[in-house]
Amino acid sequence: MNCIKHAYDNDSLNARGRGYSKSESFDENWYKMSDADTGSDDSKDSNTVGVPQFLVVNNVHMLNGDHHHVNMYEETVDDEAKPYIEIVEQPQSRGFRFRYECEGPSHGGLQGEKSEKYRKTFPAIKIRNYNGPSRVVVNLVTDEAVPRPHAHKLVGKNCSDGVCTVDVKTGQNTVTFANLCVQHVTRKKSAEVIEQRIIESMKMDKMVKLGNLNEQAYLSEDELAQAKQQAEKQAKDMQLNVVKLCFQAYLKDGSGLISKVLPSVLSSPIYDSKAPGANVLKICRMDKYGGSCKGDEEVFLLCEKVQKDDISVRFVEQDEDGNVVWEAFGNFGPFDVHRQYAIVFKTPAYKDPNN
Amino acid sequence: MNCIKHAYDNDSLNARGRGYSKSESFDENWYKMSDADTGSDDSKDSNTVGVPQFLVVNNVHMLNGDHHHVNMYEETVDDEAKPYIEIVEQPQSRGFRFRYECEGPSHGGLQGEKSEKYRKTFPAIKIRNYNGPSRVVVNLVTDEAVPRPHAHKLVGKNCSDGVCTVDVKTGQNTVTFANLCVQHVTRKKSAEVIEQRIIESMKMDKMVKLGNLNEQAYLSEDELAQAKQQAEKQAKDMQLNVVKLCFQAYLKDGSGLISKVLPSVLSSPIYDSKAPGANVLKICRMDKYGGSCKGDEEVFLLCEKVQKDDISVRFVEQDEDGNVVWEAFGNFGPFDVHRQYAIVFKTPAYKDPNN
DNA sequence: TTATGGGGAATCCCCACAG
DNA sequence: ACATGGGGAATCCCCGTTA
């Protein structure tokens, strides 16, 4: 006798070829700025994954208003427990939508990965082994082996110029980022944004070389042209559908001046939920939820937007411990994916078609 | 016993609330230009539907290069068979896609309503009761009781500046418009386009008033501002998803100069196939094609893009002569329309549930 | 290679509902 | 009236096919 042997559930719908990256953090050594690197190299050599030069330079720039000189070259050989940034809550990886500037503000902020409908959480970091005042800066970087500044902007609470800056008081050891939003810069405008960032970093680089961060540096026509060209190149193939948060912390000394820079820490990637393929996969409705163990039955499945060439329907059986004891895939081709919102497939046979 | 009683076919899927307009043509009297009307009035009084003033003025302007004076005021009381434009083939109403400028040229032209896959036809007109040379002009107008010039442009063969102009030789009594395309002007740019048209028509109006079509007229700041304001108003609620072709003909005398203007004739409306709701309704796939006469069976239907609030599924039975002997509607609500591409409905009972 | 057609991505707009 | 979330319209880009 045929019987309903396999149940279908939402988790059974899976996309092929998706890698869910885990969170990353950099080594805990003090960051040491290299004065030979303009941040414009294309080398993919990243045995020692480092913070991109651009980024730190930019941050120094932003802190410029403090009018004091940070000794970027300080070496610490201190082996004691060193301060470092820890991400205590990652941002949600999926389900958040990047909004365009034209969509206006206030469409809800980025939540934490543990967020629930009626118990919302938010991305948060903690500065370990340190209890004094600091300034925390968050900006967006690309999801690459060697991350670069991203064209998108952080907007929302405490944000300006695409960057989020929070001054942390003594004793406040956790920083929670409620209402952080990712503003989706259009592909067209992304070149401009990146160009600006490059120009600033090149200026800053000059200033660092001159050893004076308080005097404006100027770029030659040539350098400007180069910045533009480079920006256009970067903008052209920058992935606009994924960003990472880059957290940086500047520790303040007794007088409130910046004394140390902690190594940057990157969050796990955040995928734009509006982007094709980045959607949370979801089965909305099916015309049958059970059938013959022999398989080969046609099922109409209505789903959220999928990619006809990168989607499959997976049947799984798990034991009490959640181990997969059986799996098989629904049978269909790209042609059976209707307008990205429905799939017509044939059921696979159950492992024991007579059971 | 239950049996398959009603068949489903593509024609059974119908939208509510769609009016398919029939073709229209204006009265056959000679067109008489009113010199008091700038074409800018908003009156919806159209007992005698007339050609909008803008249009004709524009055409005169376009013909200006001929450097001769057309007597626009000629009255004919002639009762003999008068020349007139007849549309011998209407354009296809549905299934044609308006293309944006950015989409580049050559995506296929507007076809005739009788066009078939391997026997294509095109919109065509005939000038009746006349065999001499003429110039035929086609442009786009709105689908309103009082048509206005449309923001969209005609492009393709013989087109320039959004207008199609064909010189017709003696003896060629049919003009066929192969490769006419409608260029979709963006809502933003539509105001500019319309403003330009209004400015031209106002200039022309002045020139007409001055009785000299060969000398350029100038507008005051005030008039320009008024044109702009009016254009913005018109652009804001102009329907960009539908146009009509406006055919005009200028008969030439023995020396090749324009001697008479025939009354304009409008085609039936042409709906942009890419626009929501203007799609050809189509059932792509269903999970069952027959069922119980008692009805109340759930059917998953995959379709082309529909509007969840303006769609229904109709079951019909026709006799041999095509008369409807029974009809009923599938039962579903907007919530059952999945992302515009699928409908889950319950079948209605057949007229005789026991048969 | 262009002509023809079509799918869907990127951008933008606006609505419904909850607080 | 705003904060949040979401659907879909308007615009744009690009691909496979066929003539």
Automatic annotation (TrEMBL), chains A, B:
RHD domain sequence ranges: 80-277
Alphabetized GO MF terms: DNA-binding transcription factor activity, RNA polymerase II-specific; RNA polymerase II cis-regulatory region sequence-specific DNA binding
Domain of life according to the entry: Eukaryota
InterPro entries assigned: Ig-like_fold, Ig_E-set, NFkB/Dor, p53-like_TF_DNA-bd_sf, RHD_CS, RHD_dimer, RHD_DNA_bind_dom, RHD_DNA_bind_dom_sf
Listed GO CC annotations: cytoplasm
Pfam families: RHD_dimer, RHD_DNA_bind
Coiled-coil segments: 210-241
Keyword vocabulary terms for this entry: Coiled coil
Cross-referenced PANTHER family: NUCLEAR FACTOR NF-KAPPA-B P110 SUBUNIT (PTHR24169:SF28), NUCLEAR FACTOR NF-KAPPA-B PROTEIN (PTHR24169)
Protein name: NFKB1
Organism, as annotated: Mytilus coruscus (Sea mussel)
